[in-house]
Amino acid sequence: MAASGLAFPSVTFGKPDSRKLKIGYIGCGGRGTGAATQAMNADSNVELWAMGDVSQSRLDSSFKSVKGSHGDKVNVDPKRQFVGLDA
User: Fold this and answer.
1) Residue 82, H or E segment
2) Distance between CA 25 and CA 51 in Å, rounded?
3) DSSP label at residue 5
4) Has residue 9 been placed in a domain?
5) In this predicted structure, what is the pLDDT of residue 18?
6) Is there a domain that residue 6 lies in?
7) Partners of 3 in beta bridges
8) Range 27-50 average pLDDT
9) In-domain check, residue 12
10) CB-based contacts of 82: which residues, under 8 Å, 6+ apart?
11) Would you state the pLDDT for residue 13?
12) How far is Cα of residue 36 from the mean position of the Cα atoms in its chain?
């Protein structure tokens, strides 16, 4: 059976959107920091907006790491840095 006659839908017909996709993550260890980095590498229109962790030192370390590699995409104001078990 030939697949040449099949047509697949495309998402390119939508109107371009210039708004940033704001992301946040909870858990600033190695996996969380890696996932945030991957999300920011996935698209040029992504912005890190919020972070949360149970430990202030881990949040600070993760913030420094992510800011160092994606400075222009990191916009995490201190009021959007959440620390504690209910972060």
Assistant:
1) strand 81-83
2) 5
3) T
4) no
5) 77
6) no
7) none
8) 93
9) no
10) 26, 50, 51, 52, 53
11) 58
12) 4
Q: Which two tokens stand for residue 59?
A: 């949040």
- A 10 A CB-CB count for 73 gives 21
What per-residue confidence (pLDDT) applies to 60?
A: 97
Give dist(CA 45, CA 77) in Å, integer: 19
Contacts of 39 (CB under 8 A, 6+ apart): 23, 25, 46
pLDDT in tens, 43-63: 889 999 999 999 999 999 999
- Identify the domain containing residue 40 by its residue range: 20-83
pLDDT confidence band for 17 (50 / 70 / 90): confident
Q: Considering the domain boundaries, does residue 29 fall inside one?
A: yes
Report how many domains make up the chain.
Answer: 1
Altogether, the residues listed in the chain come to a count of 87
Question: Please, what sign has the CA dihedral across residues 6, 12, 15, 19?
Answer: positive
Residue the block writes with tokens 């006659």: 5
